């Protein structure tokens, strides 16, 4: 018993020993980006911000569906629905710094066979943004998904996630298996696998520097919004993504308070975490992974089999983190094959 306690104490000490320099590195990197931008771009560039009062026309494309407001857990969620409501539900969960519109290619591809629903998650775009970090904890985000499915009148769905939406989806599928028929995730590892990769080497730790930096007040908001949200274009302007598509994401992020509320996802993940030890995923699961991801090491896409009973992994060589937007045709083909086989 004493040896077990001593081993746990040693592991915690090692964790703290690693965490302190990582925190220092993360803060220094974030601040250096701000300082270098100020020096080489100037104050005017850093704090410029275009006023956006209306959606870009691309977000109103009727082929993407109808915009609705749905009341969930006391919040108004902005929802876009496309297809026949008598068809099976395909529910999309977006990532950072995106919104419902990040699934435009998949909505167009699957709305003939499914009732496609993509929504701005709480604190994003045209959905309500409650104040306080605790309102963005994983338990709240997972609860939104379960309630939305019920409000839509469904008892099950095909759930599709990416980035933060993918992280929520892993937790949701494990906790509400009866509500999920099939599960498709993109460039987000199972939480257990992510923990393993973080502990196994320094590569993922360094790639995740922004998570620690985002714990600071004020400075992260300046970083993500500087240059009229230039980081959105840097991150998302890949493949067929147009300048108007980028405007859609800027419109979403530039709404009052939305930069802070979206950053609160990261803050809540550290302050109010859910356990990475979740139940084994029982439903058919597809993990699509772009191997050129700048935020998540490809090692995260390996070793997931032990967490899922029925897993298919498809890697897209050189694909970026925003794989569903950068390589939509390949992603849609992989999705369609998986759905037809299960």
TrEMBL record:
This protein's UniProt keywords: Hydrolase, Membrane, Transmembrane, Transmembrane helix
Pfam families in UniProt: Abhydrolase_1
Domain AB hydrolase-1: from-to ranges: 88-328
Keyword Transmembrane appears in the UniProt entry: yes
Residues spanning the membrane: 13-40
Native source organism of the sequence: Strongylocentrotus purpuratus (Purple sea urchin)
UniProt lineage: Eukaryota, Metazoa, Echinodermata, Eleutherozoa, Echinozoa
Similarity-based family: Belongs to the AB hydrolase superfamily. Epoxide hydrolase family.
Protein name according to UniProt: AB hydrolase-1 domain-containing protein
GO molecular function annotation: epoxide hydrolase activity; hydrolase activity
């Amino acid at each position: 018993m004493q040896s077990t306690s001593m081993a746990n104490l040693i592991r915690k000490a090692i964790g703290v020993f690693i965490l302190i320099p990582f925190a220092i590195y993360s803060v220094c990197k974030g601040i250096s980006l701000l300082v270098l931008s100020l020096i080489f771009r100037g104050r005017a560039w850093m704090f410029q911000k275009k006023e956006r009062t209306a959606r870009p026309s691309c977000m109103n494309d009727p082929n993407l569906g109808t915009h609705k407001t749905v009341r969930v857990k006391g919040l108004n969620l902005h929802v876009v629905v496309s297809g026949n409501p008598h068809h099976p539900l395909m529910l999309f969960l977006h990532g950072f710094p995106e919104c419902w519109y990040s699934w435009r290619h998949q909505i167009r591809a699957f709305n003939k066979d499914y009732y496609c629903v993509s929504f701005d998650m709480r604190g994003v775009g045209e959905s309500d943004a409650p104040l306080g970090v605790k309102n963005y904890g994983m338990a709240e985000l997972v609860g939104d998904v379960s309630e939305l499915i019920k409000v839509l009148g469904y008892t099950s769905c095909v759930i599709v996630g990416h980035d933060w939406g993918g992280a929520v989806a892993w937790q949701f599928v494990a906790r509400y298996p009866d509500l999920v028929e099939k599960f498709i995730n993109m460039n987000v590892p199972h939480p257990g696998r992510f923990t393993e990769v973080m502990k196994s080497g320094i590569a993922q730790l360094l790639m995740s520097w922004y998570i620690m930096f985002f714990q600071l007040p004020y400075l992260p908001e300046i970083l993500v919004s500087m240059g009229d949200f230039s980081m959105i274009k840097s991150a998302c302007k890949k493949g067929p993504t147009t300048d108007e598509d980028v405007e859609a994401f800027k419109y979403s992020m530039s709404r009052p308070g939305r930069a802070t509320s979206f950053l609160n996802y990261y803050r809540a993940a550290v302050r109010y975490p859910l356990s990475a030890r979740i139940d084994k995923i029982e439903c058919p699961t597809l993990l699509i992974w772009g191997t050129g991801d700048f935020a998540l090491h490809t090692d995260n896409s390996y070793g997931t089999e032990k967490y899922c009973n029925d897993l298919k992994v498809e890697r897209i060589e050189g694909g970026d983190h925003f794989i569903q937007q950068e390589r939509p045709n390949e992603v849609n083909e992989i999705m369609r094959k998986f759905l037809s086989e299960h």
